[in-house]
Each structure stands twice: as C-alpha cells, then as structure tokens.
Specification:
CATH superfamily: Zn peptidases
CATH architecture: 3-Layer(aba) Sandwich
Bound molecules: zinc ion
Number of domains: 1
Distance between the termini: 54 Å
Order of helices and strands: HHEEEHEHHEHEHEEEEH
Number of strands: 10
CATH topology: Aminopeptidase
Strand content: 15-25%
Shape: globular
C-alpha cells in the first residue's frame, strides 16, 4: 500500500503561494545564535587571518554579517583553495568543521595555498535549524547569477573574481534523518508534487561533478574520512538517494547545471561532503573531524596533483 503523507501547509498538489510561505515562516523557531556560535569564533581568528564581511543578510527582522576568512599575505602566485560550510544552515558539522579546520590546520598551509573559508553561508538557516532560507528557497539550488536567494547571490559575488583560478573547492554538508521526515516532504508540498519516500544513507559519502569527475581525488578524501567515521554503503539497487554509486562512497551530480555551491568556482578539484550525524555509530565530534579530514585530504591531494 502506498504511504500517504501530507505536509501541514498548503493543499496537496498545489504549489505554495505567498500565504503558504508566510505560514511556513511562522512555524520556524530561532533555536541558536549565529553571533555566539560563529561570529565569536571568527573574531577570535582576526590576529592570524584576514576577516571580511562580504555582505549583510537581512532576514526575519535580523541582520547577519556574512563572514569570509582569508589567508594572511594572499599571494597571487599560489593556487587557491575554497571551503564553504553552512550552505544548509541546519547541517551543523559543516559550520563547525570549517571553523575547526581554520583553528587547527589552516596555518599549516601558509606559503603553499591561499585559503578562502566561508564557514556559514546561511546564518538564518543556522539559527532556525533549517534547510531553506527565510523565503523558503533552498540556497543550494540557487547558486547562479541573479539568484533569488540572498545567501547564494552574496557568495556568487564573493567568488566571482576567483572564478577559474581556484584549484580546489570543498563544500561541507550533511544528510540527516530530518531530510526524510521534514525537508523532503516540505519540498514536495511547496512545489505541489507528491512526496516519494526514500532512504537515508547510513554513513559518509561524497558528491563529485558528473561533468568533470575526479575519481582519484574523491577516493583520497574517502580514504581519509574512513579513518574517522564509516562510509555509507550502496543500497540494494547500487545507489544512494536515487543516484548510482560510481565508486566507494561517491555519487555524482551535474553541479553547475543544478546551481549547487560546489559548481561556483569552476575548480579542477571539487567535492561536496555528506556527513551522516544521526548514526548511532558516530558522534558530533567525529562528524566535525570527518569534515576537517575531508578538507585536509582534498587540499593535500590537489597540491600534490597540480
Ligand atoms: Zn546540505
């Protein structure tokens, strides 16, 4: 029997209008502080890194600084590495992993690569533990010129001058149980589509660019993460979340065509990490460590294979 699941907003089969988006927004609760959790940690890096407020996000009656951390003594003769976290604000290990990488590891790359780290692309989503922004738009389908998502437009503008000069870009994400219980049903309801239940992969995986795959690079990242937490197996059909598993722990999307963050820079080496924080076999600390291990492995592979 087909499972009938309805979302509490809107009429099944009809895309949302302004009233439904407003009803959705009224249900979102502010649960944590970007200023306390992110801005404070970034401020503590000011003696060692250059901190830039690349835009201000106005959302839900609050203003949020959008912060980028750059290597001090940026050297135009060196390659560039970009790290982005918190494109989906609820995916906590992406934000904490990006900050932990800068705090613990970034100094070790001085003189080898210029680093640009944006730890929290979507502060409103961070505070509200939400996938979408305040306008019920998924920032990670919106990284294109003229984007309706402020968060995405601001990051595109920040990275535009670096387009085609970035060597490696790591975009930090999670796949969570709430994707299946809340965010996918909300997406189906918003767009007036039926919700098709699926599965959540049990473990870490990566998304490569189907248009420019780098399989050896992806496996270098998987090998590093496997020392920290378990890698998701393929399902009975040889896939994960509807895509074929092309190698151990790796699926592919056409990043740029879908407006995904990892498609912005045009870097030779790009990957999207997907940590699974809801497994009984992992901890928040291991999830953060998996993100840091991904960044380090990606940078090291890229520098060794320029
Ligand atoms: Zn995500």
């Amino acid at each position: 029997m087909q499972q009938i699941l309805s979302y509490p907003i809107g009429i099944p089969g009809q895309p949302w209008g302004d009233a439904e988006r407003a009803a959705w927004r009224s249900r979102q609760l502010r649960q944590r502080s970007h200023a306390d959790d992110v801005v404070t940690r970034v401020d503590a890096l000011r003696d060692r890194f250059d901190i830039e407020t690349y835009a201000t996000l106005d959302a839900g009656g609050r203003s949020y600084p959008l912060l980028a951390i750059r290597s001090r003594d940026w050297n135009p003769d060196l390659p560039i590495g970009v790290v982005t976290g918190g494109v989906h604000g609820y995916e906590t290990s992406g934000i904490e992993g990006a900050l932990a990488f800068v705090e613990q590891c970034a100094a070790g790359y001085a003189g080898r690569i210029n680093l640009l780290v944006v730890p929290c692309v979507s502060p409103w989503g961070y505070e509200h533990v939400q996938r979408w922004n305040v306008d019920a738009i998924d920032p990670n389908r919106s990284f294109r010129a003229g984007s309706p998502a402020q968060e995405s437009a601001a990051l595109v503008a920040l990275l535009a001058p670096l387009r085609d000069s970035v060597l490696v870009h790591v975009d930090l994400h999670e796949t969570t149980d709430t994707d299946e219980s809340e965010f996918r049903p909300a997406l189906a309801a918003r767009d007036g589509m039926p919700f098709e239940p699926g599965g959540i992969p049990d473990g870490f995986y990566l998304v490569d660019d189907s248009e420019h795959p780098q399989p050896a690079f992806q496996q270098a990242v998987i090998a590093a993460v496997e020392r920290v937490t378990h890698i998701a197996p393929a399902d009975a059909d040889g896939g994960m979340i509807g895509s074929p598993v092309v190698a151990h722990g790796v699926i592919e999307y056409p990043l740029e065509r879908l407006g995904l963050c990892a498609g912005i820079t045009g870097a030779r080496y790009v990957t999207t990490t997907e940590v699974y924080p809801d497994s009984p076999r992992t901890t928040p600390a291991q999830c953060n460590a998996a993100q840091v291990a991904s960044i380090v492995a990606a940078l090291d592979y890229a520098l060794a294979h320029r």
